[in-house]
Structures are given as structure tokens and as C-alpha cells.
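[Meeting: bench + compute handoff]

Bench side (C.D.) handed over the final construct sequence. Compute side (W.E.) agreed to return the predicted structure before the next meeting so the bench team could plan truncations. Sequence as handed over:
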Amino acid sequence: MTKDSEPESSESLKTFGAVLKALRDEAGLTQEQFAPRVRYSATYVAKMEQGRRFPPKELIPRTEEVLGAPAARVLGAAYRTLTRKVGLASWFLRWAGIEEEAASLLTYECAVIPGLLQPEPYIRAVFDRYLPHISEEQYEQQVVARLARQRLLKERPNTSFCFTIEQALLERHFGGLEVTKALLDHLLEQRRRRNVEIQIMPLRQEDHSGFEGPMCLAETADHRWVGYVEAHDSSVLITEPKAVSAMLQRYGKLRSQALSPQDTTSLLERMRGAL
């Protein structure tokens, strides 16, 4: 366990931004001229050049259309040096590495929507309320890092992602009505992925095996299981087989107690329609 919550350096993002700016300047284009040609806003381009936004993968082919193949190859090389771990707290990094290679990932959450499922408005609401307060740069780094992590859902279609979430987290309206609308829309969108399963634990459930708190479990590439728990800027990676076995038993029971994926979808649609 560690209590070092400082995010990792964003030097790779800043380097990418500097390369993008140099290529744009070389072409004689302002941000305002370049942005619509690559189909992003000038503000978004500015933040990428400042190292404050993780660039979308689609930027590279769009840049080729505007600046040509040689520039796109240079930018693509810079893109490949980026890491989705930029901005992640150091105590989370070990789990982030396991998460990236997992064959299966199981998550139960009763305090906050799992990071892999948070839409950007929800992420910003989380860090708006983070204590102690963080700098604007740290804030942007952490938002960027969380959004970048979520690419795992798309980039690892053979990984099975299972999320069990307490209904209370949706009823809370954390961040306000618009954030909740964005959250419900996002959950409905993500559950359409074939490798993503979302189940809601109903508000009233007498037989509930999650009373020990949130937990994550990952099946590694060599089919070993590890557990992970975190709270208050600290975390524990659990590798002892007996302890991991107990967590797997609890998670299996939780899934049987929660709403089915189909009933979960119906509940999410009703909640969204009521807003």
C-alpha cells in the first residue's frame, strides 16, 4: 500500500503537443485554420498542443489529409510514445498495468461509478469535488488519464468487462441533473458492447454480499486471478490465492443477487426517461 497520490508526469503529452504545433506551424496554419480541417474545435486543438488533452487516434489520419503523409508519420511516431498512464496516481499504476493486460475484469462499486464507465461530465464532477483541491494542470491530467483508460473497452474486444453497480449511485444525481443524464446515456451506450456487462444492485436487497465494500478482480493473461481494493488515496493489490478465492466467491454471489443485464437495461431506460 502507498499513499503517494501525485499524478505521473505529462511530459509525453507535452512532447506530442509540441510536435503537433511544429507541424501545424510548418504548414503555415493557425489553430483556427487547422482545427476545422481535422474536424475538431480550435479550443480542443489548443489543449492538445498544450498537453492537456489525450489526442484521439483519429487525429493521425485526419492530419495526413491536411498536412500530408510525411507529417502524419512524424505525428504517428509521437503518438506511439504516449501512455494512458499519464496523470494516474502512483498508487494506482500497478493495477492500471494489470488492467491493460487482463483477460477478464470484474468490478463491484458502491461509492462511485467505476472509472472505466464514467462519461467526461461525471469525471469532471468527481475532480471538481476532490479534496484537497488540485491545480488546474493536475485536474486536466487526471481527466485525460481517465478518458484514455476507457479506450480499453474498445481496444480489447476479447477482454470480458463485468460491472456490478449499486442503484443508489444513480439515484444520487451526483454532479446534478445534466451529469446524471450523461451518465445514464453513457451506461446504456457502453452496455451495447459485446464484451461489457453491467448489472445494477437494487436499492432494496436483503441478501447482499457486498457489505465489505468495493472490489476489483482481474484474470491475467496466464489465467491467474488477482484482487484489488482502494480507498482514500491508497490501494492494496491482493495476490494470495486464498484471499483472491474468497473475493471471487463474493463477486459471484453479488452477480446472482443483482438485476440481470436485461433488467438492468430496462431500469436504466426508465430512469433516463424520468429525468
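W.E. noted at the follow-up: Residues 1-9 have pLDDT under 50 and may be disordered. C.D. will use this when planning the next construct.
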